[in-house]
Specification:
Layout (H helix, E strand, L loop, with lengths): L2 H29 L5 H5 L5 H4 L1 H4 L3 H24 L6 E3 L10 E3 H13 L4 E9 L5 E8 L5 H20 L6 E7 L11
Parallel strand pairs: 4-5
Antiparallel strand pairs: 1-2, 3-4
Length: 192
């Protein structure tokens, strides 16, 4: 998700949250008599308003339509949150007269993951190809706490990254590598 979308989500959700907190606070204050003792014994809505739905047969259809529209908008928003910048095919065509070259991102990431997990001390690896802000590769490597980090870093840079750049035919392909300790495979130590 982009930073702009994250910022918009935070603003909208914060405003919605503040609105709901204010409405709840006003309702609580009304029930506790903050606006006068006489308001605690009277209904919040006048009788004409509370009996309006009984007199208008279309009212509940309108409520159902608004609820359905809200559900559809919420589903679209949720699907927008799940959209990520991964790509499935990489067009490596340089000249259409020579033919089209397409690389499946899944094949590249699987090869990178398999080669990375073959390194001693690596417990798992996850790679993905993204196209924002430009085409690049992200690699997350889980490792044991006994691994030689300098040796692992050298292997990643000299072998894995070099092979990925060679496969993409792009010597300047940005590759982001994140090293993480694998807490599932690292023995817990206790301090006496």
């Amino acid at each position: 998700m982009t930073t702009r979308a994250d910022g918009a989500n935070r603003i909208v959700l914060t405003l919605l949250g503040l609105l709901l907190v204010a409405a709840g606070g006003l309702g609580l204050a009304l029930s506790l008599g903050a606006f006068g003792e006489w308001r605690t014994t009277h209904p919040v809505l006048p009788a004409e308003v509370s009996s309006f739905p009984d007199e208008q047969p279309w009212f509940w259809w309108a409520v159902a339509g608004v609820a359905l529209l809200t559900a559809v908008l919420a589903m679209l928003w949720l699907m927008a949150q799940l959209r990520i910048d991964r790509i499935s095919r990489i067009d490596r065509t340089t000249d259409a007269k020579d033919g089209y070259t397409t690389l499946h991102a899944g094949a590249l990431t699987k090869a990178v993951e398999d080669e990375t997990t073959g390194i001693a001390g690596v417990t798992s690896a996850s790679a993905r190809v993204h196209d924002r802000p430009r085409l690049g590769l992200s690699l997350t490597v889980a490792m044991t706490d006994s691994v030689d980090i300098d040796g692992l870093r050298t292997r990643l840079e000299d072998d894995i990254v070099a092979h990925a750049r060679e496969a993409m035919d792009d010597p300047d392909l940005p590759v982001e590598v994140e090293l993480r300790p694998d807490v599932r495979r690292t023995p817990q130590r206790s301090v006496a």
